[in-house]
Amino acid sequence: DVAVCLFSSDLRVHDQPVLRAALRSARRVVPLFVVDRGVADAGFMAPNRAAFLAGSLAALDAGLRERGGRLVIRTGDVVAETRRLAAEAGAGEVHLAAGVSGYALRRERRLADGLAEDGRTLVVHDAVITAVPPGAVLPSGPGRDHFAVFTPYFRRWQAEGVRAVLAAPRSVPVPDAVRSGTLPSARDLCPDGTPSPALPEGGEPAGRRRFGNWQRSGLAGYQDGQDDLAGDATSRLSPYLHFGCLSPVEVVHKATGHGGAGAEAFVRQLAWRDFHHQVLAARHDAAHADYRARHDRWRYDEAEVTAWKEGRTGYPVVDAGMRQLLHEGWMHNRARMLVASFLTKTLYVDWRVGARHFLDLLVDGDVANNQLNWQWMAGTGTDTRPNRVLNPLVQARRFDPEGAYVRRWVPELAGVEGAAVHRPWLLTGPGRAAGDYPEPVVDLSEGLLRFKRARGQE
Ligand code: FAD
Questions:
Q1: Contact by Cβ (8 Å): 3, 176
Q2: DSSP string covering 393-458, please?
Q3: pLDDT band at residue 435, thresholds of 50, 70 and 90?
């Protein structure tokens, strides 16, 4: 009379449908997390996410202990370890939330087959990584398995609504005989590389605190402030949503409850997240292959790519974003957009190069959101205006009008006042001499020409 609850991207006890289902089906439950070697082998483990994940697992263990349980940790191949543990615990069922990536689906299939061989059952629940599960709303028409355009998706998403929030279980009885294993450190999860210096704290309590503060002091002003680079007025909930420390269902319900334009705009962003997940769930290859338009005339200039990664392109607003990423493992959405446009449409470098760099650093790095936002910016994805180019100087004027974002992240220019900071090449005298800020890596009109040539628009 034992079931296993296999945690994945749902590292929480509140609104946890998989844990609740396991507790309903058996008297005792083994809450299991497998440090899956396959994730590391697939190149998806990176120091910043490892640090956040280590904190999230420790917090989940604490949350389960408050309820008389504990988290059981195993390391190795997720299928082999789960089978072994289910045998050891005498479990009849293993409960798991559906994933959306090709990797998750393969894992599910292997698990179902392996457990069936052992005479056990894998129970796969709706995906809990999104507010509305992928596939729950579909466009009409035969064979259409996902929405390719956001606006009609969003209308259906709103009409569908999100399921009710589940309370956290009062107690989680775990069989005594099962060995706990050791909670992994960030180093155990990712031995190579060093985490960025200013990462957020992982885990459900930290996520719930942040969401509480956000509802009190951020949400109402979200619509007005969401694009203000220096204002930093977004929720920063993305890593908590990525690891499932926060339930998107609960976030949508609570935010909607506040009402108003801020809440509406915020919920719309959460629907964007669901949108990308339902694209990936139907088109696994979109993680690496062009989703719609195919472009194969990308350039690759090592010096230009390195300048972009290091935040030394000579365009201060681009460099500010890239340096924020290095320092915090996070970047403002508006900055992500303009640095991605700069890489793919001004330097004309393949979006996969940028997406890889983001995944190496982002603490919220997520296959669905990252790859599909990159494809959007590169014009290979779901954007219905694939040829728009974001001019970094126009973006800077609109979204960092006083230059405060640039001064925060580019110390060489900290002494330059006002919007002049966006065009350091025009500075004379002491402003120019300040620090060794580089010349622009490419002229913007030359960049535009590259773009037009490659897209056959010349
Ligand atoms: P808020 O503005 O407070 O938004 C609330 C939540 O809505 C976010 O936490 C996020 O979960 C969701 N959201 C907001 N904007 C988007 C969007 N455009 N697409 C999907 N979901 C969104 N987001 C990731 O979570 N992981 C990624 O790997 C990722 N890579 C990106 C790469 C590029 C090139 C671009 C342009 C965007 C990327 N985004 C990614 C989307 C977005 O930039 C981040 O979700 C957002 O900046 C996170 O900050 P926040 O939590 O303060 O967002």
A1: no
A2: HHHHHHH-TT-HHHHHH-GGGTT--GGGGG-GGG--THHHHSTTPPPPSS-HHHHHHHHHHHTT--
A3: low
Name residues whose C-beta falls within 8 Å of residue 327's C-beta, 6 or more positions apart in sequence: 196, 197, 198, 409
What is the architecture, at CATH level 2, of domain 132-161+207-282? Answer: Alpha Horseshoe (1.25)
Residues of each domain in the chain carrying CATH 1.25.40.80: 132-161+207-282
Structure tokens at 147: 């929405």
Element (H, E) at 97: strand 91-97
Q: How far apart are CA 117 and CA 424, in angstroms?
A: 66
Give the pLDDT band of residue 458 (cuts 50, 70, 90).
low
Pairing mode of beta strands 72-76, 121-125: unpaired
**Where in the chain are all domains bearing CATH 3.40.50.620?**
2-128
Cα distance between the two ends of the chain = 70
Query: Cβ neighbours of residue 129 under 8 Å, at least 6 residues apart?
Result: 9, 10, 97, 99, 100, 244, 248, 277
Q: How far apart are CA 456 and CA 180, in angstroms?
A: 60
270-296 pLDDT, tens digit per residue, is 999 999 999 999 999 999 999 998 887
Confirm whether pTM is higher than 0.95: yes
Residue 231 DSSP code? T
Characterize 307-343 residue by residue with b for buried, 16 or more Cβ atoms within 10 angstroms of its Cβ, and e for exposed. bbbebbbebbbbbbbbbbbbbbbbbbebbbbbbbbbb
CA atoms within 13 A on the CB side of 423: 12
Ligand 1 touching residue 241 (CB < 6 A):
yes
Give the mutation target among 150, 251, 278, 369 for probing the ligand 1 site: most ligand atoms within 8 A of CB: 369
Residue 50 CB contacts under 8 Å (≥ 6 apart), including other chains: 186, 187, 189, 190, 195
Tokens of 110: 């292997």
> Ligand 1 centroid to 434 CA: how many Å?
34
d(CA 74, CA 34): 5
Spacing, Cα 333 to ligand 1 middle (Å) = 6
Q: Which fold has domain 2-128?
A: Rossmann fold (3.40.50)
**CATH number assigned to the domain with residue range 302-454, chosen from the 4 options 1.10.150.20, 1.10.579.10, 1.10.3720.10, 3.40.50.720:** 1.10.579.10
- The mean pLDDT of 259-278, rounded to a whole number, is 98
What is the position in ligand 1's atom list of the atom closest to the CA of 339? Answer: 34
Q: Is 280 in the pocket of ligand 1 (CB under 6 A)?
A: no
